[in-house]
């Protein structure tokens, strides 16, 4: 038991970085997803195609490749230094999951029954009013369960930032393992449990939102 | 540092060698996950409630913790586990680690496929006096499998994009080669760009193909099986 306590104390040092990366990635990727998803539903061909290009590039390549690209290639190529590696990590995760999540936004907007659009046109609403008052409130409900799933995915993705040298939970786990080789199973089990504890509220959120999303959406 | 086309074209053949390893590893992991996914479904059929509850939480645990840590566990920690621990080579560890991680997702795909078949179908099959195996083989599975095929395809692409994680435990695939090259000549931009391009070239057409499949199966599914009043 004492080794587990010792390991937990070491891992706690990394929880701050994991949480910072998690919170900022969630904020930015949600913002990106909303903007990109709305642009994808736009009838303006230029905006639509440009966003489509962004989405396909970031969904088509692997997150870990993007992470290395942002942390090694970006400073070298354009002499852009993103302050510290933590921003490279947050940027890579946000752009990657923003691209994935924009597809939920687009899909949910498309899934709102066409009669709703027609009805709001009949009520003489402007395009903006239609989106804000009628379509989005229904679409957001549909997005929520998938959104919760992606939040768990983002949490799992934050473990990758240890590969570019950020001192998160996994980083401290690796450090501890390198000095206590025979305790490797305990170390990684405790790391897994740490991530699971962080995921529990997100799992609960997803389950709750599955119930919420079934109410208040016009069918057909 | 400036972008150099010379380096760019030089690394293409180097990275290309790693592409076959990435593809092979993807297929091996995927097959493992597809087969092991049934294991979770079977475990869910055990009558004991406590057992089912335990299995579900184990699956939830595997699903919601990082695959990278699971890879490290299997590669670095498994040999230290008393009694059952064996040392695995990086390939086997990657197949096992990523395979188990994704099997928990695939079991959900199977479950949703089975649940998408309407209850009436089972009742009708009972009314026709079919045996249990006949019900599954002739009525339920032919309807449950088509809607899962696009989702299974999606997971193949997702798997492909997760395989570079194996480079962290020493599988010499695309990303590993790119990082080696970068460390050797201090040129990261070109090799990493080549890797990204390879991923894009392979995954984007497959994604389009799966979209087509989705439309095809949905249409077939609608026409053949769903009779709405």
From TrEMBL, chain A:
GO terms for cellular component: ATP-binding cassette (ABC) transporter complex. Signal peptide: none annotated. Residues 15-202 form the ABC transmembrane type-1 domain. GO terms for biological process: amino acid transport. The keyword tRNA processing does not apply. GO terms for molecular function: transmembrane transporter activity. It is a multi-pass membrane protein. Gene3D superfamilies: MetI-like (1.10.3720.10). The chain crosses the membrane at residues 17-38, 50-72, 78-99, 150-173, 185-205. Pfam families: BPD_transp_1. The keyword Iron does not apply. It comes from the Bacteria. It is found in: Cell membrane. SUPFAM superfamilies: MetI-like. Keywords: Amino-acid transport, Cell membrane, Membrane, Transmembrane, Transmembrane helix, Transport. Its main location: membrane. Belongs to the binding-protein-dependent transport system permease family. This is Glutamine transport system permease protein glnP.
TrEMBL record, chain B:
Its main location: membrane. It is found in: Cell membrane. GO terms for molecular function: transmembrane transporter activity. Keywords: Amino-acid transport, Cell membrane, Membrane, Transmembrane, Transmembrane helix, Transport. GO terms for cellular component: ATP-binding cassette (ABC) transporter complex. The keyword Transmembrane helix applies. It is a multi-pass membrane protein. SUPFAM superfamilies: MetI-like. Residues 19-210 form the ABC transmembrane type-1 domain. GO terms for biological process: amino acid transport. The keyword Cell wall biogenesis/degradation does not apply. The chain crosses the membrane at residues 20-43, 84-106, 155-176, 188-210. NCBIfam families: ectoine_ehuD, HEQRo_perm_3TM. Belongs to the binding-protein-dependent transport system permease family. This is Inner membrane amino-acid ABC transporter permease protein yecS.
